[in-house]
């Protein structure tokens, strides 16, 4: 079932099958990271400006932040000619089947032709982990994995963004294949072209959002699904990627350095911000959440 408005929602989160928290994280080394073209508004003006030494140091610190939280890190090496591959949230959607407990990934169909060759490298990695690997049929024109499709913490429910990168027909298929409901959210501001730039699911009951990225139906769905909806101020969300934060354990929130007001809001709600610096990657339009893929 796909829900577009809160008034249609006829299910209760508590009735959905539980989903264990993934304990492993996949990163892609930034060896060949670059801003080489412009496929989102943040990349404009940054072509060729990446400081590779800084990018490497920032990536290494992100890796160490995950290790410090006790999360097992796996690395797929970056590939020459694929400058956006470091954003490894986008090429797949990992899933764990509620009944069989079998794990798999849905392979993305990247919106930009420049990114399409990234996908097979991740298919290969997940095969080595014993995952089922499922490509999408040609009828789905685009789908960008966990850039747009986010698991509700602890429950078999997907939050699915569309409007810039993902063809909403992908969600019809996912709901069928995975047997999970999808809360479909239309994105309306091109700076927030992926759902993970404006919604960070923090815990089963809390989310951090930038409200201006959604339409009224979307906002109502989010408020229906999360008891506590924290709002990041526009400046921090738009320019500092505050909502591209990642909470891997229900408590610590890895977030781009410098979002003072968002950090205050997070602390007041009982979360612990862990600041990392990803500003070399923000030049390409991505921060913490885009740079990792959690899996079981
Ligand atoms: N340059 C990349 C793109 O436009 C950045 C992707 C960021 N990833 C994300 N999950 N938001 O596709």
Q: Measure the end-to-end span.
A: 25 Å
Radius of gyration: 17 Å
Which descriptor suits the 3D outline?
globular
The proportion of strand residues reads: 15-25%
Helix-strand blueprint:
Elements: E1 2-3, E2 24-28, H1 52-68, E3 72-76, E4 92-96, E5 103-107, H2 119-128, E6 132-134, E7 149-151, E8 158-162, H3 169-178, E9 182-186, E10 199-203, E11 206-209, H4 216-225, E12 228-231, H5 234-240, E13 252-256, H6 260-268, E14 272-276, H7 279-282, E15 293-295
Parallel strand pairs: 1-9, 2-3, 5-6, 8-9, 11-12, 13-14
Antiparallel strand pairs: 2-15, 4-5, 7-8, 10-11
The structure holds arginine.
Describe the structure.
The chain is of the alpha/beta class and 296 residues long. It has a single domain, classed as 5-stranded Propeller (L-arginine/glycine Amidinotransferase, Chain A), CATH 3.75.10.10. The chain is built from 7 helices and 15 strands. The strands form 5 sheets. The protein has a 4-stranded mixed sheet, with helices on both faces. It has a 3-stranded mixed sheet with strand order 3-2-15, with helices on both faces. The relative contact order is 0.18. The structure holds arginine. Residues 39-40, 43, 84, 87, 89-90, 115, 147, 194, 196-197, 284-286, 290 line the site of arginine.
Please describe the structure with a list of short key phrases separated by commas or semicolons.
single chain; 296 residues; alpha/beta; L-arginine/glycine Amidinotransferase, Chain A; four-stranded mixed beta sheet; three-stranded mixed beta sheet; 15 strands; 23% helix; globular; binds arginine
């Amino acid at each position: 079932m796909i829900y577009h408005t809160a008034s249609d929602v006829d299910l209760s989160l508590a009735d959905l099958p539980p989903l264990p928290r993934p304990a492993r994280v996949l990163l892609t080394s930034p060896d060949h990271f670059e801003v080489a073209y412009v496929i989102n508004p943040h990349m404009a003006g940054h072509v060729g400006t990446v400081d590779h030494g800084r990018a490497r140091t920032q990536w290494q610190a992100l890796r160490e932040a995950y290790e410090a939280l006790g999360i097992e890190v796996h690395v797929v090496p970056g590939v020459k000619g694929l400058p956006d591959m470091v954003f490894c949230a986008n090429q797949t959607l990992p899933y764990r089947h509620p009944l069989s407990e079998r794990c798999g990934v849905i392979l993305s169909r990247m919106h930009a032709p420049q990114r399409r060759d990234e996908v097979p490298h991740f298919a290969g990695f997940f095969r080595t982990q014993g995952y089922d690997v499922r490509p999408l049929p040609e009828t789905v024109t685009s789908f960008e994995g966990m850039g747009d499709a986010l698991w509700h913490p602890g429950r078999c429910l997907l939050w699915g963004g569309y409007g810039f990168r993902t063809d909403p027909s992908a969600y019809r298929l996912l709901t069928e294949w995975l047997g999970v409901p999808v809360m479909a959210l239309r994105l309306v501001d091109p700076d927030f072209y992926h759902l993970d730039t404006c919604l960070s699911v923090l815990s089963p009951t809390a989310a951090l959002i930038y409200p201006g990225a959604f339409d009224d139906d979307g906002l109502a769905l989010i408020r229906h699904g999360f008891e506590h909806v924290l709002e990041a101020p526009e400046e921090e969300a738009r320019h500092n990627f505050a909502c591209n934060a990642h909470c891997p354990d229900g408590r610590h929130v890895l977030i781009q350095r410098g979002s003072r007001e968002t950090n205050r809001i997070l602390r007041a709600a009982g979360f612990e911000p862990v600041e990392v610096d990803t500003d070399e990657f923000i030049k390409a339009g991505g921060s913490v959440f885009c740079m990792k893929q959690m899996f079981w």
